[in-house]
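Supplementary Text 2. Reproducibility record for the structural model of the 592-residue chain.

All settings were left at their defaults, and a single model was retained for analysis rather than an ensemble. We include the record here because the model underlies the residue-level annotations in Supplementary Table 4.
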Amino acid sequence: MKHTPFIAGIVTFLFTIDIVFAQTTQTMVVNSNDWRDLYLATLYSAYKGYKIRFITNLYDAQITSSMFNERSRVIVIESRDRPVYKNYAHLLITRGVGIVSQIESATPYDLQLKIAEDLNPKGYILVNDEFGYDALSVAPYALNNNYWVLFYNDKSANNVVDLISKERGKKIILYGNLPEELLNILPPTASYEKIETGSIKGNNMEIVRRLIKDTKVKWVVLSSGEYFEPGFLKSRFPILLYFNNEREIVEFAKKNNIKNMEVIGANMVTIGRKIREISNKTIGVVVKYGQTFTGIDELRGKVFALKVFPLPSLNVRLEITNAFYDKEREMLLIFIKNTGNVPSYFYSAGIRIVDSNGNEMATLRDEYTHFIYPDEVFVIKYKVSLPFVKNLVAELYTLYGQSFPLKTYLTQMGKSLPPYRINIEEATFEYDEDALDIVYFVYVSSMKSFVARIKNKLDVNLFGDIEIYNLLKNGINYTFSYKGVFELMPGEEKDIRIPVSISQSDINKNKWLNATIYYGRRKDFMINSIKYGAVLKQEPVPFTGFITFLKNNMLTILLIMLIILIFLARKKATKARIERIRRFAFHHHACN
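Retained model, structure tokens:
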């Protein structure tokens, strides 16, 4: 029997807002410019069954205040430091609104604890709040399973740890990319489950799969993750993130028996249509594209865009800034900068050097996949012999992305296909060769980090970065990089730590440690590099740096020990002298 979807085509509809809310319905109004306050309040209102509104500007604040009357019951959640309208509750009271109460949010991290205390959930989901994707993904799962969402970072860690420590026995889900150093301080008494596939998309699909399995729901909400609309949580349907790949969405829907999708916003109509076409019209699509008002004459009947709140979103972008050829060294130097806001992998699968007529002079490729943080500049060097440089162009076929597999080619602005073309300039550079010593390079299990001790042998400051490449983890070769750029003073010796959480079985499989150390006199011009290759050594505790400290400061340590011994000897002598005096006094007293 052929199954007919509930929705046969694309349906678009308006969201109608009643101007005067019913007397018995509690309404929550969010007065904050912080998306996290809005998110927490919306989640809270969904638990409580309240209606939810948020204000975005002064005009909107006035319109929203008109929606209530003397019978209305309103709770205002107001940001202490980032309100849209200062003391909004006072405005509502002035306009005659019946019952008005206020919850102040000193910070979202303060607000999430206040709400957790009121709700008493059966567990918590910890997420990173750098972007909005993770918070959106877990919200329906939290609502359907009586969990509360906590933003977990260095600002909230202490309070979250205290909360978990007090509420023993509650289940904790660690969702997404949470800092390793913060995971290490979580109390061992709690029951933890981790959802981390290595990518935002993978994590989202995993939690959507779980919710579909638990609830048997056949309807999902599709979101780009770039904005928040309170209607996302009204139905408690899973929220599936869309990353510019309709075919992937359709495949996921078919595998998980999804029959209908709701997409929000007029800009999503085209995406909904593509999904319908690719699915051969087996997936119904509903588009919520606007809102209307009732109750105020000047607004009645008019169609307004949906009111949404922007979320911090990913910007994965690299730029090739320069290409130089050092004829004396027969070296091509390609400068690549991460102009996005997230770390990115990249791999130049092919580089063609062509002349002005398009004749191919040479072909090159990267030795391994690179990993670069935002605002960092990498200089990748290629050994190549070119007869001349004038009018030569490098054509790069560079794959990049936030996670594996890499499917996107780097293209120039306004172009959708590779290659990325850049003119090659001739230049001669002064290199600082043999400038660094690698004292040791080990994996420290207790720190879950690689630690490299590097010494600057020059009499000038040097900046550096480290890449560990071809490191096998969960069956995939990864590249890991130091976050930022480290600086070494003249003659300085320093431990450089690269956090990498890797299992003991994977450590055993990685017999060899491969790394590249980039360095230079300017952080944006690190044209020098040295390769490191050695048997991977593992240290159970971070003692190597301490040993080096002892070697370098032996005289100082001996002097300190000598001072301590003299102090203890004098203290002992003084104590003995006091004891003799006490005995003499006692004996003299007894004789008398």
